[in-house]
Amino acid sequence: MSLSRYFPILEWGRGYHKTAFTNDVVAALIVTIMLIPQSLAYAMLAGLPPEVGLYASILPLVAYAIFGTSRALAVGPVAVVSLMTATAAGNIAAQGSPEYMTAAIAMALISGLMMVGMGLLRLGFLANLLSHPVVSGFITASGLIIATSQLKSLLGINAGGDTMPALLGSLYAHIGQTNLPTLIIGMSATLFLFWVRKGLKPLLVRLGLQPRVAELLAKAGPIAAVAVSILAVVSLDLEGAGVKTVGHIPQSLPPFAMPGFDPDLWVRLLVPALLLSVIGFVESVSVARTLAARKRQRIVPDQELIGLGMSNLASAVSGGYPVTGGFARSVVNFDAGADTPAAGAFTAIGIAFAALFMTPWLSHLPVATLAATIVVAVLSLVDLKTPRMVWHYAKGDFAAMAATVLVTLLAGVEIGVIAGVGLNLALYLYRASRPHAAIVGRVPGTEHFRNVKRCDVLTAPHLLSIRIDESLTYLNAGWLEEFVLESVAARPQMRHLILMCSAVNTIDASALESLEAINHRLADSGVRLHLSEVKGPVMDALQHAHLLKDLTGHVYMSQNQAFSELILDNGDHDGRLRPENDLWLARGLI
Amino acid sequence: MSLSRYFPILEWGRGYHKTAFTNDVVAALIVTIMLIPQSLAYAMLAGLPPEVGLYASILPLVAYAIFGTSRALAVGPVAVVSLMTATAAGNIAAQGSPEYMTAAIAMALISGLMMVGMGLLRLGFLANLLSHPVVSGFITASGLIIATSQLKSLLGINAGGDTMPALLGSLYAHIGQTNLPTLIIGMSATLFLFWVRKGLKPLLVRLGLQPRVAELLAKAGPIAAVAVSILAVVSLDLEGAGVKTVGHIPQSLPPFAMPGFDPDLWVRLLVPALLLSVIGFVESVSVARTLAARKRQRIVPDQELIGLGMSNLASAVSGGYPVTGGFARSVVNFDAGADTPAAGAFTAIGIAFAALFMTPWLSHLPVATLAATIVVAVLSLVDLKTPRMVWHYAKGDFAAMAATVLVTLLAGVEIGVIAGVGLNLALYLYRASRPHAAIVGRVPGTEHFRNVKRCDVLTAPHLLSIRIDESLTYLNAGWLEEFVLESVAARPQMRHLILMCSAVNTIDASALESLEAINHRLADSGVRLHLSEVKGPVMDALQHAHLLKDLTGHVYMSQNQAFSELILDNGDHDGRLRPENDLWLARGLI
């Protein structure tokens, strides 16, 4: 039981049967065809030799098949994580140097350890700190940076940079060196891939193919572009004309080796690796959750962290770089009929086969074709719908999103994530620190109490009812003291205050202390404090506190009971109610 | 209007009259007598020359009188802030060096700028991040560290350290060098001051003095200890016997100078200065709030930040170090009858007088007497009641408190604050990310709905009602999806889901997206999503979103209406209710 919690393979592996095997093999074949050009391209985006992309697509997939809980997630190199790896490693050493490679592998190792650790400690909830708008903004901005960074390969020039201004400046400075054959290959590949995306499926359907088959066949577009452009380079000797190709790729399985441990390097990579882990996890979980829901299956986020962490550790010990679950790839895997995580293991076999036998053919592959693959893939990351929706719905969320986009574009991915998360959290804490509260009165002729600002309700000058629409915690304890004491200071005739707690789900130790302080201070100025509609769990907790003993007033089951009883205590000492003096319509008078 | 917002002196200054003047002068006199030994002692605690304490008690008080909103707060050097200054400056340079002095002044300057900036941007709410338990734990641990650090002066030995283990180790190593005359002076002063605290007031009352006068007279204890020990040193030539004294104090007003700006130093002091600002602000505001409430006055936290910030800037330009509102001092000021912040300005005049004319007499003051003053003052900071209360009330809050105490004692004040705030926030976010929710059913014979786990209620297999007891935000959006989809996955007969939103005060953009995802995924599996009891402001916001248009079900005013209508749609298509099949007591069946 506990073992299969950490090894989900024991769960689904027990019932593994022939139909599932067939389904998984078919799905694996299609994903392999899609993954070969992607893994080469994303390794290039990460500033690494192309074979590293293949290595990162073998062992990590096997690890995920053992430890992951999603049945359809396809892990491997993805665009955003590759960009983050390039940024982090680029801060350590120059691209192409052995130190750069070491840093990329260390990123996989550190994030792997972090993810496994967070999963074991059940810290997956920390990923909640990345709100949807911040993630959407970050992915959009990353997509724009990635697409821009690939222009250099499409033009055949040297340019670089981690931020939009740096990239654009560098492109502008070198645009004169554009290589025409490269530009032609790059543009043709880009246009072809866009057409494959939009136009091929309808065409195949019109030619009589089933929509699902047409859809899957269209996924082979990138591999076709790869094949055609290799052919073009070889037959026209374009390498002589200045077209940059991938060059020699070692024909081998991944090199197994324990990555070294350099404390200084680790310290410098801690924050980038943490950001990469969280972003990778959030992206992966949202894909996995979407696909699981379609089959009424479930995923376990904390175990997903362990699964992705083990994948990254597997990548680190086999010459790879950071990986996570890819969106497009997982959807293809799902649509192609993958039944279990075994499909991932079969994909790994396919990629291993490619690494052993196909690499010699790939050496003439133009870099511009890979750049075209990346550009077409990442432009789908750019999301213009969400910003409009968020703008109309919640300005605070939009501010966090806009800050994420702008800071990511102008200052790079790491600061971008931190700025978005920080602003979002600050806005959340700001709101939590001044919750909604209403002065309420009785709706005439009923037992209901409503906001005096929204309804015509009955109140009295010696009796104030405040409804607090939030749990009382340390974040709003200070606000509570001020709100209550100011309300009292403004009403010299007051003798009773009722706090209506119908929306108070918890009271923490700080808020409890504030309530005790309020109780004492109100007593000093001759006002008694009452509570009404305190929820069961809150009442249970208050049994362990002094407040109930010290309370100058009572705890009432219902607000109506409190109001009905205290309205009589109007200071005339005869207990008779004089409606003409003590009750009136609140609007305008309070 | 707006001007008096930032210059509260314009408000109270307009009505300033003779009675207030007399009251303020009397209070200032008493606070001055109390402040002279304190300012010398806390400067020593901060590792600074004694006159720096006097300088920090002149101009900052005038600045607070102009910009502060509390009528009774007495600002100046305080124990915890002095300790934090010593720690921060000690990380830059050795005590006694000019760089140490520069760092201490820079701390005042940076925190002053931070406080003013936070006040202008109305960021005072960020101080809420320090919960009562964390502040209480931090102050207790700081008090213990301060008291231990003074043992060296009471024993007349050399010892030091920022953490408890370092301090104890250093004391143990040097204890053999104890100087007997110093020990006698230190012990006598400590015992005398403890007796003054506990025994002098009752004695004076028994001698016929009014309790209030006796209380205030007892506050002159430290100055009496100072006078007596100076007399003892001079008459017995104890300096020759190895008793360390304060030594020469320049006889002058504060030296005005613009502090230099060293970017490297500023970067290193940013975090310590931020922590010092927040701790100083939180302590000061809690004192000011307590005293204001006693007279039904109010303070404005964001303006308090400006007031304290200007005090620190005033300190920095007049050779002083960081200051804030002191607890004991403010209570004395209040009890002595201070009517307005002018009392602070009059205290400043008193201290300036002392700096000009009393300093020659103070050169023979034994350091052990000052140490005794500190020990007696800070032991009242050690709070053993709160931990017990918090332990019984809320284990999570206790964990944050215990972590703060332990980390502060073992690793120092800066890491201590950060650890406490971090753990507290993590626990808060953890709770916010998995809020309370209940599956509810109808209490038979009523229109009320209650938790199926707590009450015997009516439910039906084709209809699930979930009440969510929390606002829906990005922190719990992921939880919401999982909770709802798992509930549905476990109930194959389900056709309708009602989310009862009576406790949902807001829905942010992330949660909105999750609700839309839930709506679509439920539609895929043939379940319709309904909302009930959506609050007015939430409904207003939802008008700007797609959710209501896309919703597969309805939005019902009341849960009862939703339940009554949907219970009939039990899939039999004849609309007739079959109670024997469709309704039963929930306990044990759901």
Structural account:
2 copies of one chain form a homodimer. The first copy, chain A, is mainly alpha-helical and 590 residues long. Chain A has 2 domains: 2-426, no CATH class; 437-585, Transcription Regulator spoIIAA. Helix content of chain A is 62%, strand content 6%. In chain A, the strands form 3 sheets. Chain A has a 6-stranded mixed beta sheet. A two-stranded antiparallel sheet of chain A has the order 1-2. In chain A, strands 5-10 form a two-stranded antiparallel sheet. The interface between A and B is large, with 72 and 70 residues.
Q: What order do the helices and strands come in, and which of them pair?
A:
2 copies of one chain form a homodimer.
Chain A: H1 2-6, H2 9-14, H3 18-45, H4 50-55, H5 59-67, E1 75-76, H6 79-90, H7 98-120, H8 132-155, H9 164-174, H10 180-206, H11 211-218, H12 221-236, H13 263-294, H14 301-316, E2 324-325, H15 327-335, H16 342-357, H17 359-362, H18 367-379, H19 385-393, H20 395-411, H21 413-433, E3 437-442, E4 449-451, E5 458-459, E6 463-468, H22 477-489, E7 496-500, H23 509-524, E8 528-532, H24 536-542, H25 547-550, E9 555-556, H26 559-566, H27 579-582, E10 584-585
Parallel strand pairs in A: 6-7, 7-8, 8-9
Antiparallel strand pairs in A: 1-2, 3-4, 3-6, 5-10
Helix pairs in contact in A: 3-12, 3-15, 3-16, 3-18, 5-14, 5-16, 6-7, 6-13, 7-13, 7-14, 8-9, 8-18, 8-20, 8-21, 10-11, 10-12, 10-18, 13-15, 19-20, 20-21, 22-23
